[in-house]
Amino acid sequence: MRTYTDQVKYAFIILFLCTWSPAFAEASQSTVYTAGAWSPYVVGALIGVLSWCTFFFAGKKIGVSSFYASVSGLIGKAVAPQHTMGLAYFKEKPPAVNWEFVFALSIFVGAAIAAITGGEFGLRGIPPMWTQHYGTDHNVLYGVLGFTGGILAALGSRIAGGCTSGHGISGTLQLSVSSWITVICMFVGGVVVARLIY
Amino acid sequence: METDSDKGSKMPLAIVFGLIFGFLLQKGGVGKYAVIEGQLLFQDFTVVRVMLSAVLVGMIGIYFLHKNANTKLHIEPTQVGANIIGGLVFGAGFACAGYCPGTGAAALGQGDIFAGIFVAGMIVGSYIYAEASAFLNKTVKSWGDKGKITIPQVLHIKSGIVITACTLLFVGILLSLSKVQ
Lengths: 198, 181
What we know:
Chain A is an all-alpha fold. Helix content of chain A is 72%, strand content 0%. Chain B is mainly α.
């Protein structure tokens, strides 16, 4: 058995070794990326480092979708406790304010902090991309698609066992077969439906 | 499932790591509707850049942590039918809304109020899944159940070799993507 000090030592060696990745990507880039305030390569690499931390320090992978299941279960428990707790999924995974719940809730706050400190915070309505294509007469359709999209994304995550975080990042980086199949299908489904909308 | 991490002591880590994840999603621009839709229409490659960089760095680190520091892996079981159908259904929702569960949360955090509709849909959809879970467990979830398997196990190749090959592939894709907007 290795000691805790050894584990920390290894973590820092790996941290050092992998710092080349964003630097390499930055050096190679010839275009200016405007989608986000930071380079997507740097953000991606830091999410990679964050995944080491969640695995190493918390014994958890990065994942978000189960949070929504817990919220739905807790609401269901408040409204119809017997019915909700009788459902197979909630028997298997009882809804709770657990680690995943707190992690996901913190995402809202983390994004708000980033947006406020970066001067990108603002209450925005329907995205310009939608109105440029559909005009302003189809705002209800935008809302319907957003809600339907949420339902489908939740069903898909629960059926497949994770979302773009749990499977798309955390699962693929562990070379899990389920995650590679799922993430490929996510993009296939997404590309087809995006073409139908735009 | 109640684990050690849920019993208080690891909860501060959930807050810190969640804050960092939300912060990074916002800084990367992936909380924006146009960035997600742009990726699915092959007009904006931000999402692929972020995801491949994350997987590249994450996979190398987790490999060494698992090998040298006994860090446990958290692999979801492969259920071929459920993975394919769930992935496709998720993708359809992803494209309809222009958000995914993580980036939708980030979008709402940065002030995109209509991401709230997506968040509400996720909560309703999760309950619908729970209603159907007994049926889905007997059908979709049991098709092609292979357990917790990894690519190195299936191919009978050492993890280190698969990681090296993936690293070269991802670096190649990222470098060629640096030529397009």
